[in-house]
Specification:
3 domains; globular; Rossmann fold; about 55% helix; about 375 residues; 6-stranded mixed beta sheet
């Protein structure tokens, strides 16, 4: 953390000098700050790394005179910090901690949170998994109901497990859309940091923002990367992160806590820490799609998007093909996308030559399309 603290000090002093009109000295300090932020980023991962790279970019732009006109509020805030840089003791450390925590929260709001309903998938866009959809709907309905008997417990945390590409992210997003809730799409790799004490801070910031934006759905992918069995050889930082995660999840069960639903996803539920597993009120398997689900997924990515198949029997044949090869929903989606591209290339020969035309002419071009044929999918004969 020392590099980060040094960078903050140089940044604050540089801004103070800039406001005093000492341009050259200010630029020198800001560029030093940028270099230190970049160096700190080399030893960081996920959110911490991206935050430090953004700080470095901001310092460089400020040194070049490109930020003063667009970020007066930010400049003012850093100038306030600068007046205290020469101070010492616990008060200064506390101010630095609060400032960094606030920046992490702001990053989470700007980069991990989706609030607009139109950006999230609906239940109809998820093929099959009808029983899973019903379970999830019941879970958030019970959780959202304010008045219920003490014996009726809410599912504040749900674990989705199964092969990759089976729609776990889409299911979590559909829950958020139904609730008109803030949706936090988080990969564990974004939460982890090599700096001591930083991962727990990022986790706490995530849950605090979720409570502030409630109702909220936090979706944590790659969950096993942070919640592996503690019987193994884990470093101290990972153990601290696990403890923080447990504490935050426990806090969701408080009656006074705003509605926040945690949905985690893993491909290997057997590898998860038992204490973490016990926090999930419901564990739901998300299997590979069956025959009917495959047909529905194919329709979602073809017919329901304006490009049908030429013959109804082709849906049946393709669905059998997908089941036999144990294809996931993601695999089926990409199969359909590739088939559509094959059709587009056949119907629009020389399409790449349009790249030489003016932009407005490209915009007005009308793509020629047709119904998809079996040949477009370029699949081997099914048994």
């Amino acid at each position: 953390m020392e590099l980060h603290r040094q960078a903050e000090a140089f940044k604050a002093r540089g801004v103070a000098l800039l406001k005093e009109g000492k341009i050259e000295e200010a630029r020198r300090l800001l560029l030093i700050a940028a270099e230190k932020f970049e160096k700190a980023a080399e030893f960081s991962e996920g959110i911490a790394k991206e935050l430090r790279l953004k700080e470095a970019e901001w310092c460089r732009r400020l040194a070049e005179g490109k930020e003063l006109s667009v970020s007066p509020k930010a400049v003012g805030a850093v100038r306030e910090e600068a007046s205290e840089v020469s101070g010492g003791g616990e008060a200064k450390v506390e101010r630095e901690e609060k400032g960094e925590f606030a920046r992490i929260k702001q990053y989470i709001r700007e980069n991990l949170m989706v609030r607009a309903k139109e950006k999230l998938p609906s239940w109809d866009e998820i093929g099959g998994l009808e029983d899973v959809k019903k379970l999830l709907k019941k879970a958030y309905v019970i959780g959202a109901i304010e008045k219920k008997p003490p014996a009726v417990s809410s599912w504040n945390a749900i674990l989705l497990y199964g092969p990759p590409g089976t729609g776990k992210t889409m299911l979590a997003a559909a829950v958020a859309k139904s609730l008109d809730a803030a949706f936090f799409d988080v990969k564990v790799s974004q939460l982890l940091s090599k700096y001591y004490g930083e991962t727990p801070k990022i986790i706490s910031a995530l849950f605090e923002v979720a409570r502030e934006e409630a109702p909220s759905v936090i979706f944590i992918d790659e969950f096993d990367a942070i919640a592996l069995s503690r019987s193994g050889d884990l470093d101290e930082e990972t153990r601290r992160a696990l403890s923080t995660l447990l504490a935050e999840m426990d806090g969701l069960s408080s009656k006074s806590s705003p509605f926040v639903l945690v949905i985690a996803a893993t491909n290997t539920p057997e590898a998860l820490d038992k204490a973490i597993l016990s926090r999930f009120g419901r564990k739901i398997e998300i299997p590979l799609p069956d025959y009917e689900a495959c047909k529905e997924i194919i329709r979602i990515h073809t017919e329901k998007k304006g490009i049908p198949l030429e013959d109804e029997s082709l849906y049946d044949e393709l669905a059998r093909y997908c089941v036999e090869r144990k294809m996931s929903g993601r695999d089926i989606k990409f199969m359909c996308i590739e088939a559509i591209w094959n059709m587009i290339e056949e119907m629009n020969p020389g399409l790449e030559r349009l790249a030489e035309e003016p932009y407005e002419r490209i915009r007005k071009y009308e793509l020629k399309t047709r119904a998809l044929k079996k040949e477009d999918f370029k699949i081997k004969e099914t048994r």
